[in-house]
Amino acid sequence: MALLLLSLLIVDSNFGTTFAHGIGGRDAAFVAATKGPDLVPFIYLGAKHMVTGYDHLLFIFGVIFFLYRMKDVVIYVTLFSIGHSITLLAGVLLKIEINSYLVDAVIGLSVAYKAFDNLGGFKSIFGVQPNNKVAVGSFGLIHGLGLATKLQALRLNGNGLVPNMLGFNVGVEIGQLIALVVFLVVMLQWRRTASFERFAVAANALILTAGFMLMEYQLAAYFSAGKV
Amino acid sequence: MTIEGQISKPLSAGNMLAITGGAFVAGSLIVFGAILPAEFNWDPLGLGRATGLNRLWAPREVTFDTTTGSVPLAREYPMGFRTDVIEIPLRAGGDSTRGDELEYKVRMRKDATFVYEWSVPGVSNPEEFYFDFHGHTLTAAKEMTVATYKQATGTSANGALTAPFDGVHGWFFQNQSVGPIVVHVKISGFYELIPPGDTGNEAGIIANVPADKAFGEQ
């Protein structure tokens, strides 16, 4: 799965435009032209943004990788959702705009963080285990900041802002749920295989690589933004 | 003890360091070796050039309107007047190494002028030879201004060009006929030849030598 995601990343034909993972093209034109509440399209945009957002997806995949009990899956995903909903809504309402490259770099870092944590890296190297619920919730805040920045970059119309933004948020959760179901089905099958533990290490090493890659790519984009 | 959300047998510090280091190196290699050259025209490791990945990068094109603009009818130029004869051999159409097409341009300052004539003897059907007479700015920036003067088929043309901007101006020639041919180009005016290999003369054509020496002594 991680391999699949990574190869998707690499062969994506729209690399340049989708890598920064904003909302682009006709969707952007639609949002800019929208005046007044337009719930369903915004729900769709939110879901689309999530389902096509490999940075968010990789993070969620990392989070649930070793969660064996459904109860834990629900707790962690809810924490992540609460986190990104807070900053998504607050960010748009308070017009907080942070450079999207920097936010995306931290999102890349969050992917690397979770893969590192999954393999027990904090305990074995640093001797301390950070609280995972706090970490996932906090990274949720960062991911939400990214969502808020992307949504605001579209010059949202003030008329109907709140319902449209809430619609987008609902869409994000729907998209996340769709992705989560797919991940869980894959993981449940995969965990039954005898070689799971061995491949699990390799898979997390790949997620770690992808996390570093996303982070460095966004930093490079940030530093070259004025130059190139 | 297993922590929820983690592997049941945590890795040793040594393994963990190796994996993290390896992941960082691999991620960095992809970014610096491939993504930066392809997306940002920035090739710190030289891998973009070595692999041809840097060719994926292209500046955004801004089209220059070639039908407007005016320059004084009488003009003086600081550079000397020159005349060059260029013989460009092209392989038979459909050549697998793309030896059937190339670009030949010269450097010009804005408002500089040349007069030219070119012809391709040996192509019986004028439909089987394509040319694109155009120019563009030389820049490593995000934008590149391009001007298209003429895109057509035909086996000869003569005329004049006054450059609308500083840059490289000239022809893309493509042989679509069944045999190898030689394009004879004659240019006179105020311009500079582009050293073989540089932008505008990537094919490495040498001017003022017979066609069989156009790519150097072989």
Describe this structure in words.
The complex is a heterodimer of chains A (228) and B (218). Chain A has one domain. Chain A is 79% helix and 0% strand. Chain A has helices at 2-11, 15-19, 25-33, 39-51, 54-64, 70-93, 100-118, 121-126, 132-152, 161-192, 196-224. Chain A is globular and about 55 Å long. The relative contact order of chain A is 0.20. Chain B has 2 domains: 13-53, no CATH class; 60-213, Jelly Rolls (Sandwich). Chain B has 2 helices and 10 strands, in the order ααββββββββββ. In chain B, the strands form 2 sheets. In chain B, strands 1-6-5-8-3-10 form a 6-stranded mixed beta sheet, with no helix packed on it. In chain B, strands 2-9-4-7 form a 4-stranded antiparallel beta sheet, with no helix packed on it. Chain B is elongated and about 85 Å long. Chain B starts with 12 loop residues before the first helix and ends in a 25-residue tail after the last strand. The model of chain B has no long low-confidence stretch (mean pLDDT 89). At the A-B interface, helix 2, helix 7, helix 8 and helix 11 of A face helix 1 of B.
What are the key terms here?
heterodimer; A: 228 residues; mainly alpha; 11 helices; 79% helix; 0% strand; disordered N terminus; B: 218 residues; alpha+beta; Jelly Rolls; 2 domains; six-stranded mixed beta sheet; four-stranded antiparallel beta sheet; 2 helices; 10 strands; 15% helix; elongated
Query: Please, how many helices of chain A?
Result: 11
Gross morphology of chain B is elongated
Determine the N-to-C terminus distance of chain B.
Answer: 72 Å
> How many angstroms separate the termini of chain A?
35 Å
In which range does the helix fraction of chain B lie?
A: 10-25%
Kindly provide the radius of gyration of chain B, computed on alpha-carbon positions and rounded to a whole number of angstroms: 25 Å
CATH structural architecture of the largest domain in chain B: Sandwich
User: Kindly state the mean pLDDT of chain B as a whole number?
Assistant: 89
